[in-house]
Amino acid sequence: MKLDSLNHWFSDKKSVLVALSGGVDSALVAYSAYQTLGDSALAVTADYKTLAQEELESAKKICQEIGINHLIISYDELQNPDFVKNDQNRCFHCRSELADHLTSIAKQKNIDIIVDGTNLDDLGDYRPGIVALQNNGIRSPLVESSLTKTDVRNTAKLVGLSVYDRPSNSCLASRIPWGQRVTAERLARIEMGEIFVKQMAGARQVRVRDIHGMAKIEVGSDELGLIRKVNLEELSSKLKSIGFESVTIDETGYKPGKINVIAD
Length: 264
Fold this sequence. Notes:
Structural class: alpha/beta
Strand content: 5-15%
Number of helices: 11
Distance between the termini: 46 Å
Number of domains: 2
Order of helices and strands: HEHEHEHHEHHHHEEHHE
Shape: globular
């Protein structure tokens, strides 16, 4: 059983800090850590400027379900010029800064090891953020226990985690093409835009890409029928009211990393 393998990974550890987002991967890691180590496991969520409020609320709910101690830290990624310039290494700079904060907390609390929610499938994508975490000694129990995304979802469902089928998400800055600066204004309208789309379409997997002020809406390929039923004029009006200049629907549906190949 996959959970047994994951629990075994934690069995010889004294204390663990889990970098917890609002998603299923780190949720399962936190669950296993707490089941194995009890109060010697601590979950930490970074409330930085590119984290959607929805993700933060999900992280809080996860920790309440599990029972694990939860620490929320806050800092402003927009103060980091390497991050704001938004080149191909944006995620590397983001995760390097996160690692610094997590390492500091671990030292303060005498925690031996820091872990994240990277799973085996993640290693097949372009993920400079993973490299940054690895460079800082942060380990990935799901990878080391050979769990894929499907394994994670199935196991999370088995143990009763409510986020077992939650769509994958990423930071709000990932909606801005490389080469276009990350600003507080753009992040705010992206977050609000995605809330509007979810409310009007009922879609769960939503991205509002901010491309030079144009909102390009992507929903899950299985949810394209939902977005097609939406009154586009009404949706466009809402998105323009928060700062977008124009609105288009991506008829091919959401695909991870699609924005990375969009020219600036």
